[in-house]
Design goal:
This protein is an alpha+beta fold. The protein has one domain: 3-Layer(aba) Sandwich (Rossmann fold). Helices cover about 20% and strands about 30% of the residues. It contains three helices and four strands. The protein has a four-stranded mixed sheet. The model has no long low-confidence stretch (mean pLDDT about 75).
Length: about 110
């Protein structure tokens, strides 16, 4: 299900424990409060749900931030090459392939 929320990342219009996966792109933007956004992702995820964070290759502090927000099994999947999307597996690596390299970090809600 692809949902675009007409709200800010720190106040999503969904109930608690609604989603199995949250894909968060733009966490490194200067106008986003990273801590509040991750707490809100934690709130809307079901137990065992995953958060996938896409950030510019220069933003390497996402792993520590996810751990601090309470996510478990946090893994930095490293950079995803630019414009290599067609051959990339799994699906989320194809989705984040873009004109500039990005990093993918994932965590699980306990």
């Amino acid at each position: 299900m692809d949902i675009t929320a007409p709200a800010t990342l720190d106040d999503l219009p969904y109930g608690s424990a609604t989603f199995d996966v949250v894909l968060l792109d733009g966490l490194a933007d200067g106008d986003v409060d990273r801590d509040l956004a991750l707490l809100e992702c934690y709130r809307v995820l079901r137990r065992g749900g995953r958060v996938l964070v896409v950030a510019p290759a220069a933003a390497r502090a996402v792993t520590a931030t996810l751990s601090t927000a309470g996510f478990g099994d946090v893994r930095d999947h490293g950079p995803v090459p630019a414009l290599g999307g067609a051959a990339l597996r799994p699906w989320y690596r194809r989705w984040i392939a873009r004109a500039r390299p990005a990093c993918l970090t994932a965590g699980v809600r306990p």
